């Protein structure tokens, strides 16, 4: 009996990155059915505070209701379909009022005012509430689910809440924010995040802080992929010069203060936990070849409250690194669109990408991929 | 026998506003077959004067011919298809000459010059005239019809010529013009024009001049929808401060001087007759979610001839109002594209919109609407 | 038996110019299967010099290899598909290195470095070379062929190498370059180039140098269309004032010094041989209604080496002429898109266009054209 040659694990076929139909399938599956991170609890400190978010082709209002809970609704008036809130954030006051004909909803979505509708035979206010979206929270992160009747968020997160309890994420407060428009498929962003084989090539500054082979991946879970990398000796955090202007987060043990945790919380939250701060990327697919990425930096309130608090050491380091990553991701998008592209071989340093690809295929039930 | 609950009249399904195929059907039906307003007789004061107009995906030349009549042609040379006139307006001289190879047509569309074609066997100049488009006029408004063999314009206009004779529209002259590019379906523009329920909410200045409940709609006709609104006591016209710098139009009686007539002359002329001026909007669908709107203000020659004539009181008032209307129309377009959109209930103050929707359905023979 | 009326030869139906599916068929047939000109040998003077070129939807690297030969490759890394060279030109050094994970190829396309791949079972470097593209040269012009197994370039060129030997094109060196983005189908560019009936109308300056009826077309060949036009008495070349700042090219006889040769070398090289310089246009279809045209001027090294060498007399003349041509080509594109467009009659001065149309139909096997 002849020996079978082993074959390397291969990247996905081109269709996953260039086919608009495939893109729609993925958005539908991962963004319209899964729990999707839309931001942080501290985005909505007071009653009536809202943010709007584009999730797939839908626009949502996420609002702090009268009872202090966070609610989410499709941003669509039930009268003539008008988008209710055009601003990215703000305060609604005690109710949401349509700018067109003043239909008014309370913060739980009930229609409470509809001028000149009382005389309409058969019209009952209670029949026309806002279309509600399920909301859940994890340690300060806000998630929504558009599927109607989802499994609980905890099922999607798996062991993450236990794993990251020490970081006390719920206590952290957002400081800086940079949004990027990247001409690459959303999965290329996640794949780029999930390996550091490219680090010595395109991130020499990063590689000086944390050796690219120092990473240890955890086994992939259905809802997340990730692992830790070690800081080099003498390096306090991922910053422009490797020092930190902040004390470590209070809950961390000595070992945790020597690592950075990098986790892709699928489908759209890249969670990077440093000894002294949290960085998040929200990944928003906009087209098969375009992704909006919103990067934010979050700090402990004690650090934020210090006179002269200055997060620029962390922000400038990662802004540079982000731009390097988006550039090569865009080059990948360009090359994969070629008829000369064939699935190529992954190295052992890219096993998490192979896990991610397998998860995509399994989730979509696509034994035969497109392309 | 059980009583049937009454149900409110509902807005159209989303497909009417977001489906590109539906858009093509509507352009074909309403703009390629109906009489479409392309401007005013006074756009073409002299022989050879022309304007070009984009009607649907077609570009037309409308020109004052040698016999003083107004003619219209597809803007396409019969030689190699070149667009003949690239300018939006101008004077052709006594003939229309192709800029590519100098094929030349007289102002009735006959080919009168074709260099180096005389030697071509079988070529006869009389076989290659410009493709002509039927033109008709109503009180200074110019209409074209692309259907080939249309019913007369008067059949489409119904009782409008009688109704508006007193305003003497043929005598008025165009003064100001503002073009708007609106990210909304063309029907949302017409619907917005056809109710004032939104006026107290988004046009507080307008509502101070003319109470939003002062309107009386006429029964809808196959070719137009409209009615009159009353000016409040002490208000002379729709202007920034409610006064007018012009006398009323000479033909109007005392009652007509107290109203503004608002008529949507389908498919594309919004005709707003004030005591002292005429405003017109031409509505040009460009895509399922984009409409060009050209607003113009027309005055009596006696007013225009006054030293220091200044129409800014009328123009600035309506420019502000227009922008408010386009903004909410764009918000409607955004909301209707959501999967959460469902047809919503009309109030009694929006009966004209229900009439318009019914007309759209009836004209298209679409018992089952898209979406 | 009745005589049959002769009928003029007619232009192509609209679909050839406005149908995106037809466009894809043409790009596939003419640009993915034929020899396509990508530039000049002197673009790559030294080993490692490269240019990148977009051919259809593909991006290629054309590089001077270690053995001095010119090679071409799809610009796609075999690892994860990254575009290798993002710059339009430069020098690779001795190898082509991927910017993402440093996979490295020698200039013959062999994979010579793949970090962390050695431990992957079944991985062999020799299995992952760059995808190579066939290259051939004609008198300094560089051609590529994407079909895999093409007939030799000479078969496509026919008698051109003999015909133009006297011009010594291989000796010429590129000087100036202007790129144009033209809103017209690529065939309209070729057709415009292939007749001078339009010259007295839109190029009065050109017509003063070379009478538009002075041209003599050669019989069309499968791979090229063209002919010569005579310079008027006293005119030395096609320049702003009809004089030349350069001596004639050394190999030309007295008769050749009185002509300009205009040949469309299909599918994409427009070759214009003047007594004292060569002009080339490369025609790059980008969409059914958009074409990039790169015009370059090439001179004899003796002229280029003169102190104060100034090619502006040739460049400014043709830049003006080019812009006039693109403008009418864009007007043709606009007119042909109309439903009023019908195939129109060619004159005897446009016989080369009829030959070109026939070639298009024959090559595509489209007896029944689209549209």
Automatic annotation (TrEMBL), chains A, B, C:
CDD domains with a match to the protein in the record: RHO_alpha_C_GbcA-like, Rieske_RO_Alpha_N
InterPro entries: Rieske_2Fe-2S, Rieske_2Fe-2S_sf, Ring_hydroxy_dOase_asu_C_dom, Rng_hydr_dOase-A
Essential cofactor(s): Fe cation
PROSITE patterns per UniProt: RIESKE (PS51296)
EC number(s) reported in the record: 1.14.12.18
Keyword Iron-sulfur among record annotations: yes
Superkingdom, taxonomy of origin: Bacteria
Positions of the Rieske domain: 35-144
GO molecular function, one term: 2 iron, 2 sulfur cluster binding
SUPFAM superfamilies the record matches: Bet v1-like, ISP domain
Key words, A-Z: 2Fe-2S, Dioxygenase, Iron, Iron-sulfur, Metal-binding, Oxidoreductase
Class in the EC hierarchy, top level: oxidoreductase
Keyword Lipoprotein in annotation: no
Protein name: Biphenyl dioxygenase subunit alpha
Species in which this protein is naturally found: Tautonia plasticadhaerens
Gene of this entry: bphA
């Amino acid at each position: 009996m002849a020996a079978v040659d082993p074959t390397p694990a291969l990247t996905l076929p081109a269709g996953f990155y260039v086919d608009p139909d495939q893109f729609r399938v993925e958005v539908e599956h991962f963004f319209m059915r899964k729990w999707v991170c839309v931001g942080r609890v501290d985005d909505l400190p007071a009653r009536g505070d809202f943010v709007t978010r584009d999730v797939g082709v839908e626009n949502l209002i996420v609002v702090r209701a009268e009872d202090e809970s966070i609610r989410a609704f499709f941003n669509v008036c039930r009268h003539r379909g008008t988008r209710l809130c055009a601003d990215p954030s703000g305060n609604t006051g005690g109710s949401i009022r349509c700018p067109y004909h003043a239909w008014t909803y309370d913060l739980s979505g009930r229609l409470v005012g509809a001028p000149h509708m009382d005389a309409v035979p058969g019209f009952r206010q209670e029949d026309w509430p806002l279309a509600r979206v399920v909301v859940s929270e994890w340690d300060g992160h806000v998630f929504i689910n558009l599927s109607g009747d989802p499994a609980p968020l905890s099922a999607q997160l798996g062991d993450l809440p236990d794993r990251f309890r020490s970081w006390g994420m719920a206590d952290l407060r957002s400081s800086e924010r940079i949004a990027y428009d990247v001409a690459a498929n959303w999965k290329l962003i996640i794949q780029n995040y999930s390996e550091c084989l490219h680090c010595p090539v395109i991130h020499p500054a990063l590689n000086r802080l944390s050796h690219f082979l120092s990473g240890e991946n955890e086994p992939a879970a259905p809802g997340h992929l990730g692992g830790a990398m070690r800081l080099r000796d003498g390096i306090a955090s991922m910053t422009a010069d490797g020092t930190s202007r902040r004390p470590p987060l209070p809950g961390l043990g000595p070992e945790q203060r020597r690592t950075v945790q990098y986790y892709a919380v699928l489908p759209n939250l890249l969670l990077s936990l440093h000894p002294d701060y949290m960085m998040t990327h929200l990944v928003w697919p906009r087209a098969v070849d375009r992704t909006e990425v919103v990067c934010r930096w979050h700090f402990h309130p004690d650090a934020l409250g210090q006179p002269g608090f200055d997060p620029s050491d962390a922000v400038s380091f990662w802004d540079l690194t982000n731009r390097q990553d988006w550039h090569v991701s865009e080059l990948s998008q360009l090359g994969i669109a070629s008829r000369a592209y064939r699935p190529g071989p992954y190295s052992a340093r890219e096993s998490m990408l192979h896990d991610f690809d397998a998860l995509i295929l399994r989730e979509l039930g696509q034994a035969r991929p497109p392309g």
